[in-house]
Each structure stands twice: as structure tokens, then as C-alpha cells.
Specification:
The chain has a domain at 4-34 and 46-67. It is largely without helices or strands. Mean pLDDT is 78; it is low at 35-50. Helices cover 9% and strands 11% of the residues.
Length: 142
């Protein structure tokens, strides 16, 4: 069953997207008829310059795989020289950092649900504004 015929490729793709968004699978086929030599003028455009006309086929009559771009898999790296360590083996031989001694004896823990973040706010004094009393606005000379 033909849904729409004699449309350019861009219009056919718009129709297919609309059908796909509605849940239907529609295939696009070229409907470019083979030129009739008796009806073709000698000055007609060459085959590769003719505008291709598309036809939408009915839902579930085709496959979107034809529209998928060709994907070449990336080459796999050579892992033949790799091996697995036994379970529990130390993989990182970097020495651990030295433990630091931090005195926390002067700190207290506040009871739960007490205090606010305002307790942590750093109060900054506003910057002192310079004295500009000696400045004046000049009259426009125009």
C-alpha cells in the first residue's frame, strides 16, 4: 500500500520520522521510473543529475537497517602479554603516605539538631570607601 508518492527525499524522510514517532515502521523506496526513450528529449539531464523521487511504503513493509550508517568496529588491542594477578595480590607497590598527627583535643561535638550554618559564616568587614568629596561634575561644553 502506497502512503505518499512523488515526493523528494527530504519530504519522504520527514514522513517516515512522523510515522516512526507514531509507532509505525515505514520504508522509503525510489519511485524514479525508467526513462522512456521515445518520450525523452535528447537534451534531457543525465541520469546522475535527475532529481530522485521517493515513495513511502506501508507500515511494517521494510526495515530501517537500510538507513543505518555503516559502522566499522575499532581494532582490538593486543592483550596477549597481559596476565591476571592472584586474588589478594598487591597491585600498587607505592608506599602509603605517613600518618599525620592532628590534635583534636580542643574540639567539641555539638548535640544533634543544634546550631545553623550561620555559626560557620565568616563575617567580613565592608571595604572603606575613599573620600570623593573633592570631585565635581563638569558642565557639558556643547
Amino acid at each position: 500500500m502506497k502512503v505518499k508518492g512523488s515526493v523528494d527525499q527530504e519530504t519522504a524522510i520527514k514522513y517516515r520520522v512522523a510515522f516512526r514517532n507514531a509507532g509505525a515502521l515505514v520504508d522509503i523506496q525510489s519511485a524514479d521510473p525508467v526513462a522512456d526513450p521515445a518520450k525523452t528529449a535528447p537534451s534531457a539531464a543525465p541520469q546522475n543529475q535527475r532529481k530522485e523521487i521517493m515513495t513511502l511504503l506501508p507500515p511494517r513493509a521494510g526495515s530501517l537497517i537500510d538507513c543505518a550508517p555503516a559502522i566499522r568496529p575499532a581494532p582490538l588491542p593486543d592483550i596477549s602479554k597481559l596476565s591476571l594477578a592472584s586474588p589478594g595480590a598487591l597491585l600498587d607497590e607505592t608506599p602509603p603516605p605517613q600518618a599525620r598527627s592532628i590534635d583534636t583535643s580542643n574540639l567539641e561535638l555539638a548535640p544533634a539538631n543544634t546550631g545553623t550554618l550561620e555559626d560557620c559564616q565568616i563575617i567580613k568587614e565592608p571595604a572603606v570607601l575613599p573620600d570623593i568629596s573633592q570631585l565635581s561634575i563638569a558642565e557639558d561644553s556643547n
